[in-house]
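User: Could you check the structure of this?
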Amino acid sequence: MPTQAQILKKCVDWLNENFRIEITDAFKDTAFDIKHIYGIAWVESGELWPNLIRKYSVSEILSFGVLV
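Assistant: Sure, the predicted structure tokens are below.
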């Protein structure tokens, strides 16, 4: 069974692969850096990601987060 740290790393890697550039650009002139945004995303819907990553497309995972 993966540790919590391994699960978090998997999710951060997924965010980096799919959204790092967009998130960095969107928040470049704010007080928030990438770690803040990832933390907010994790609190809001992180419990869903480990079971969805690599099973569903990025757009499907995003839609699941919006529906929750």
